[in-house]
Amino acid sequence: MLDIKVIREDPERVKKVILDRGMSAEVADIDGALELDSQRRDILVKVEEMKHERNKASETIVAMKKDGGDTTEITDGMREISDRIKELDAEVRAIEEALRTMMLDVPNIPDESVPVGPDETANIEVRRFGEPPVFTFKPKPHWDVGEPLGILDFERGAKIAAARFTLLKGAGALLERALINFMLDMHTREHGYTEVFPPILANEETFTTTGQLPKFREDMYQCQDGLLLVPTAEVPVTNIHRDEILREEDLTINYVAYTPCFRREAGSYGKDVRGIIRQHQFNKVEMVKFAHPDNSFDELEKMIDHAEEVLRRLEIHHRVVLLSTGDLGFSAAKCYDLEVWMPATGEFREISSCSNCTDFQARNGNIRFKPSGGGKPQLVHTLNGSGIAVGRTMAAILENYQLDDGRVVVPPALQPYMGGMTLIE
Q: Catalytic site residue 265?
């Protein structure tokens, strides 16, 4: 959630940010938020004046009682003031709740380094790794590679659940598990992350902290007892330190988690219907950082490098892209996408997004740190990024490492995780 002070100080800037993000001005009612904020502050001034008046009356009553005076009239007046203070306090709570609801629709402010543009066409390519593989045959899409090998079973996945659920079999299941372990080992042993395994069901407060609610409710799978299935480990892991005060000297705190992820993909019908690029259930390794505000953007650069290292080790052609304002996630101030090369279509596809959310999520979740030199606790900056999406990595391997006879070469970095297997056949 954005700080109301940001809107109060420069409402026109916030309105421009909303338009730059491709949102309509009606989505986030900035003028309405300012009006509620003004009402709240006016009432608080009245309450303070009345409390001051009540305190003076209390002193008068004490003095009058010492002199044996009649305090009935003043006492009755104090009672009326106290009743009015209670009424105004209730009004303030109602206004604050309405203001909070309104503020949850206001996106984060993009960093100055983010390019302004309407959509992904304004994104900026930062760097590339390697070259596309050269084939002596027309490369097949990953589903036409995996199905004949018996490792991807879309028909039975749909029979068990529904469309966009896939059954992995044999070497396919092994490859999925190998990728998860490969990524976790790299991030924990080499990149300094602490592995966690969080609940994959979370309550609404948890989703509100990270900004998934209320805006993206239709994309979530909702269960009984007010719980929802997580769409990414970012949601539970960012909430590990909700309502806590951390020590400044402990920052940056780095977590990595593997979880199954669940997304209804509402509004995406017709996109990537075939294959395992866009599934309702998928596995992902997620990185989350709790950083000091002074170095959070440096931590973002580290995070995208850590995600990219997975593809460098797998020797798969990819690129890093800086997202424009129109393509930026709701909670993010700056975001890089890692895109992998898919030979069958001859295009790059997103396989990881790494975002710095600055203090946007931390304000929702009341996640602060105590400065080592003293002073009031400050909000941390939270960062998250895929390290990386496992199913999409499998799809990239099947397409980039396919042979003309239908077999698939196992990348050397994964062979130790697959019992020495060098070919999927």
A: no
Q: Which two tokens stand for residue 302?
A: 């580290």
pLDDT in tens, 275-311: 999 999 999 999 999 999 999 999 999 999 999 999 9
- The residue ranges of every structural domain in the chain are 4-103, 120-424
- Using a 10 angstrom Cβ sphere, with 0-12 exposed, 13-18 middle and 19 or more buried, the burial of residue 15 is middle
* Length in residues, the chain: 425
Can you list the pairs that 264-269 forms with residues at least 24 positions away whose Cβ atoms lie under 8 Å? Answer: 264/218, 264/219, 264/220, 264/221, 265/164, 265/219, 266/218, 266/219, 267/218, 267/219
Catalytic residue of the set 278, 313, 349, 407: 278
Which fold would CATH assign to domain 120-424? BirA Bifunctional Protein; domain 2 (3.30.930)
Q: Are 164 and 180 in contact (CB under 8 A)?
A: no
Catalytic residue flag (residue 263): yes
Q: Is 128 a catalytic residue?
A: no
* Same fold flag, 4-103 and 120-424: no
Strands 194-196 and 253-262: parallel
Count Cβ neighbours within 10 Å for each residue of 201-216 and write b for 16 or more, e otherwise.
bbebebbbbbbbbebe
pLDDT digits (tens, 9 = 90+) for 234-251: 999 999 999 999 999 999
Q: Considering the domain delimited by 4-103, tell me its CATH architecture.
A: Orthogonal Bundle (1.10)
Has 278 been annotated as catalytic?
Answer: yes
